[in-house]
Design a protein that fits this description.
257 residues, alpha/beta, Purple Acid Phosphatase, chain A, domain 2, seven-stranded mixed β-sheet, six-stranded mixed β-sheet, 6 helices
């Protein structure tokens, strides 16, 4: 079984690039499930109902989120109603939405979990304790395959959680930093892992933002209103091949388009 995971979609440009390339990628990899991080899909961060619709209509089965999931209040009701639009599970239970969904593929159930790190990000419940709870819930629901989107800043935290979940889930894929890492691999226990998927957004940018704006913020220390950069985009992600009988991965391949 083949599972695609796509890095953070950035703005309208990223949404358009996703729509242009995702259908062909799904055909090429014979994808059974496609997971897309959409927390930056709206212009200026966050996700709106229109941006979520665009991503789903482009071929995503599940949209995951992160620290910008609640930036747009107009998405709150949609988070409550849509089982496949996720936000990090370690936000308080009072927050709209959920951090786990279950996809019924007929021959097996696939669980997708969204967890956020706590290093350099808003304070939430421990990602380790949250992951334990969500994995237990997914297995209680009968999921044979489990994919975790770990939305985190620190590479050390991502690696630690990857090893912590090794052998218990099918894949741990990092998001948030928008730069694809060169460490896609199978961990010793059979879990596919990558520290960061990358992004779907403008190639000549700083994490999708106009580079001159990012430079000005870092150089001059004054507030800057970020805008999505112009120009050609790139799409980063991985294909994880998994065995439903064991729930573990047999291969992981990174790609860009």
């Amino acid at each position: 079984m083949n599972l695609l995971a796509i890095g953070d979609v950035v703005g309208a440009a990223g949404c358009d690039h996703l729509r242009a390339h995702l259908p062909a990628l799904k055909r090429h990899y014979h994808a059974d499930v496609t997971i897309v991080n959409g927390e930056n899909a709206a212009e200026g961060n966050g996700v709106t109902p229109a941006a979520a619709d665009h991503i789903f209509q482009s071929g995503a089965d599940v949209i995951t989120g992160g620290n910008h999931s609640f930036r747009r209040r107009e998405i709150y009701d949609r988070l409550e109603r849509d089982d496949f639009l996720l936000r990090p599970a370690n936000y308080p239970d009072s927050a709209p939405g959920r951090g786990l969904c279950v996809l019924d593929l007929g021959r097996c159930l696939v669980g997708v979990i969204n967890v956020m790190g706590e290093v350099y990000l808003p304070a939430t419940r421990s990602p380790f304790e949250t992951a334990d709870r969500m994995v237990a819930q997914a297995k209680e629901a009968g999921c044979r395959l489990i994919v975790v989107d770990l939305h985190a800043e620190a590479t050390s935290e991502k690696l630690a959680l990857g090893y912590y979940l090794d052998g218990r889930v099918t894949a741990v894929v990092g998001t948030h930093t928008h730069v694809p890492t060169a460490d896609a691999r199978l961990l010793p226990g059979g879990t596919a892992y990558i520290t960061d998927l990358g992004m779907c957004g403008p190639a000549e940018s700083v994490l999708g933002v106009k580079k001159e704006q990012s430079i000005a913020l870092m150089k001059d220390k004054l507030p800057v209103r970020f805008e999505t950069a112009p120009g050609p985009c790139r799409l980063d992600g991985v294909c994880v091949t998994a065995d439903p009988a064991t729930g573990l991965a047999t291969a992981i391949e990174a790609f860009s388009a």
